[in-house]
Amino acid sequence: MKNIVFLFLFIFTTASFAGGDFITEFLNTCVEAKMPVNNVNIGRPMLEKMASNTNDEEVKKTFQNLNSIRIITTENKKDARHYFKKANELIADKFSDYEEVVSVNDKNTKINVVMKNKDNKNQDIIFIGLDDEGKLTIINIAGKIDFHAISKLSDSLNKEMDAEEDPSKEDKPTVSKQQE
């Protein structure tokens, strides 16, 4: 009898934790087989490895303080709009204890960012974006979040991506109107 009670508690506890994060819940309840999504999970071991491979102390600290980064994307415009709606419905239904941080509803771009402080050292932030090209991006970041450092990291990644797309931009000096 003890084994049955223990087994029941174990299954209940495991199910509670597995369904507790937004990405897992979204994948389990919203994603349809005929409308696949791309899913990337970066766990603690990889974040620690990324921290050890950078010389920027602020970026290093950011990676060390995070527990996970989970990303879902889709480039199919019809699927993207459908999943954007489903993700926001899921937040309203099962993640209503999250607080809206940012909301953008432009003609071609829609962004919703919600956040929950779990305790003094752990936050959970969910970014749901539908860009002007109809691509969906959902990012769930968990851990101690330093918004300044994440902004710096995001700027750094954007510059690298721009340089890869247009090599002539790399190391090119910026000229302001006053300097011309």
Describe this structure in words.
By secondary structure, this protein is of the alpha+beta class. The chain has helices spanning 2-18, 22-29, 44-52, 57-65, 77-94, 147-165; strands at residues 38-42, 66-74, 99-105, 110-119, 122-130, 136-143. It has a domain at 69-96 and 108-166. A hairpin with a 5-residue loop joins β5 and β6. It starts with a helix and ends in a 15-residue tail after the last helix.
Class based on secondary structure composition and strand pairing: alpha+beta
SSE sequence, one letter per element: HHEHHEHEEEEH
Separate helix tally: 6
Question: Rg from C-alpha positions?
Answer: 20 Å
Strand content: 25-35%
Distance between the termini: 83 Å
Quick summary:
The protein is α+β, with helices and mostly antiparallel strands. Helices cover 44% and strands 27% of the residues. It contains 6 helices and 6 strands.
Task: Indicate the topology.
Blueprint: H1 2-18, H2 22-29, E1 38-42, H3 44-52, H4 57-65, E2 66-74, H5 77-94, E3 99-105, E4 110-119, E5 122-130, E6 136-143, H6 147-165
Antiparallel strand pairs: 1-2, 2-6, 3-4, 4-5, 5-6
